[in-house]
Each structure stands twice: as structure tokens, then as C-alpha cells.
Write a structure and sequence with these properties.
With about 170 residues, this protein is an alpha+beta fold. Helix content is about 55%, strand content about 20%. The protein has two domains: about 110 residues, Hemagglutinin Ectodomain, Chain B; about 60 residues, Nucleotide Exchange Factor Grpe, Chain A, domain 2 (Roll). It is built from two helices and seven strands.
């Protein structure tokens, strides 16, 4: 190699890759730092949302239990009436508890499943089918009420459906 002085073009060519590498490395480090910060922020957000949901569920649970306490008091009064052999007060106490609990659950959005008319497999469960004068597939007896909460069926109504006029033989459909 000769000892000729380097020109500025040669110096720029040698320095350019180093500067470009430094810039790319710096840019990579900035992106990595931003990504790590974003990950940490997302983890904190996820934890905060989970904690908020737990607190909301706890408050809803507390509110429901608080509204059930007076019904518990009514049951205690009914049991005291039983101990004193006061049947009339017992019956009234049980009616009061039933009404109070029904009202509370209705305020919470509980709705009794409709059972009049034709059998609906989405909201009813047919336990038996038996001959009757009713149209085939009609609900002729409710064995257990069904309930829905909002658009979800909590418990289907358990019913007996008509098999139409027949020979009087009971059939199980479940």
C-alpha cells in the first residue's frame, strides 16, 4: 500500500458504515425500549382491569347480600311463629318472605319463563308427554318453574307436554 494521503471521499466511505451502524443500533435500542415500556404499560393495564372487575363483582355481591339480610330476618320471625304454634303468623311470614325474595330477584332482572301455549325447547324441558285434549306439543302442566336473567335462561321450566288425543299411555321424553 502506498503512503498517499487519503482523500475525503475515501474517509467518508470508511466512516459512513460506522455511523450507519451506530444509527441503526441506536434506532434498534430505541424501538426495544419503547416496546418494553409498552409491554409494561399493557401488563399494568391488564392487572388494573382485573382488579377493577374483582372490585365490581365484590360490590355487586355485597349489595345483593345486603338486600337479602331483611329476608333472612323475615325467615327468623316465621321460625319464631312456628315455635309458638302460631300457624296464621307462620303462613303470613312465609308469604312475606316469598314476596320479598320474589321482589328482590325481579329487581335484579329475574323473569319467570313463559309456559303457556306451545312447548319451547329453548326455555323449557319436557319431562313427560301424555295424551290429552290439548293440541300436540302444548304445555299441559308445569312441574318446576323456569327462570331467565336478561337474555340467558338460568333454569329451563320443567313441563309435561301433550301427546294429543291418545290411548292414555304416559311416555317419558327425557
Amino acid at each position: 500500500m502506498t503512503d498517499e494521503p487519503r482523500t475525503t471521499d475515501e474517509e467518508q466511505l470508511e466512516e459512513a458504515p460506522v455511523d450507519e451502524l451506530t444509527l441503526v443500533t441506536r434506532e434498534r435500542d430505541e424501538y426495544l425500549d419503547a416496546l418494553q415500556r409498552l409491554k409494561a404499560e399493557f401488563d399494568n393495564y391488564r392487572k388494573r382491569v382485573a382488579r377493577d372487575q374483582q372490585e365490581l363483582a365484590a360490590r355487586a355481591h355485597e349489595r345483593l347480600v345486603k338486600e337479602l339480610v331483611p329476608i333472612l330476618d323475615d325467615l327468623e320471625r316465621a321460625l319464631e311463629a312456628v315455635a309458638q304454634h302460631e300457624e296464621a303468623q307462620l303462613e303470613e311470614g312465609v308469604r312475606l318472605v316469598h314476596r320479598s325474595l320474589g321482589d328482590l330477584l325481579a329487581r335484579e332482572g329475574l323473569i319467570e319463563v313463559e309456559t303457556a301455549g306451545k312447548f319451547d325447547p329453548h326455555t323449557q324441558e319436557a319431562l313427560l308427554s301424555q295424551p290429552s285434549d290439548e293440541e300436540e306439543g302444548s304445555v299441559i302442566q308445569v312441574l318446576q318453574k323456569g327462570y331467565s336473567l336478561g337474555d340467558r335462561v338460568l333454569r329451563p321450566a320443567r313441563v309435561v307436554i301433550s301427546a294429543g288425543p291418545g290411548d292414555g299411555v304416559l311416555e317419558s321424553s327425557g
